[in-house]
């Protein structure tokens, strides 16, 4: 009985520790993304007015942008993230990223495009 209580206590501490580490990692990733976006926008995280969309228009525009891909779920996830940050979604289903410099210049840690 005592052994079972100790095992449950160790398990609870392990779960709490893992939860705290995950939370810290998410916070770190969000900070890195914010700093990268600030560099892309060039205005310390402020919207630089380049996008004419309202954030409420992002879902519609991203549905259009991602309508032709086989990978709809990840396309929509990243498109919405980029649209909310840049307030812009390029025309068409692919390419045309030059229309939205923020959308085009926001890169992953590896240097690849973040926005579809």
Structural class: mainly alpha
- The average pLDDT is 78
Query: Shape from CA axes?
Result: elongated
Total strands: the figure is 0
Distance between the termini: 56 Å
| Pattern of helices and strands | HHHH
As a whole number of angstroms, the C-alpha radius of gyration is 20 Å
**% residues in beta strands:** under 5%
Stretches where pLDDT is under 50 for at least 5 consecutive residues are: 41-49
* Individual helix count: 4
**Major beta-sheet overview:** none
Fraction of helical residues: 55-70%
Family: Belongs to the GASA family.
Region (Disordered): 27-59
Signal peptide: 1-23
Keywords: Signal
How would you characterize the overall build of this protein?
59% of the residues lie in helices and 0% in strands. Helix 2 (58-65) crosses helix 3. The protein has helices spanning 2-41, 58-65, 72-86, 101-105. By secondary structure, the chain is an all-alpha fold. The model is unreliable at 41-49 (pLDDT under 50). It contains four helices and no strands. The radius of gyration is 20 Å and the shape is elongated. 19% of the residues are buried. Keywords: Signal. This is Gibberellin-regulated family protein.
List the SSEs and their pairings:
Layout: H1 2-41, H2 58-65, H3 72-86, H4 101-105
Helix pairs in contact: 2-3
Please give a handful of descriptors for the protein shown.
116 residues, mainly alpha, 4 helices, 0% strand, elongated, GASA
Task: Give a quick summary of the entry.
Keywords: Signal. The protein is built from four helices and no strands. It has 116 residues and is mostly helical.
């Amino acid at each position: 009985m005592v052994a079972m209580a100790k095992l449950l206590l160790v398990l609870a501490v392990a779960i709490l520790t893992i939860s705290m580490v995950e939370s810290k990692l998410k916070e770190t990733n969000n900070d890195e993304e914010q700093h990268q976006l600030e560099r892309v926008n060039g205005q310390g995280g402020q919207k630089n007015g380049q996008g004419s969309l309202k954030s409420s228009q992002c879902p519609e525009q991203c549905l259009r942008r991602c309508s032709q891909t086989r990978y709809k779920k990840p396309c929509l996830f990243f498109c919405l993230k980029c649209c909310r940050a840049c307030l812009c979604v390029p025309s068409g289903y692919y390419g045309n990223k030059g229309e939205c410099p923020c959308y085009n210049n926001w890169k992953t840690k590896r240097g690849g495009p973040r926005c579809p």
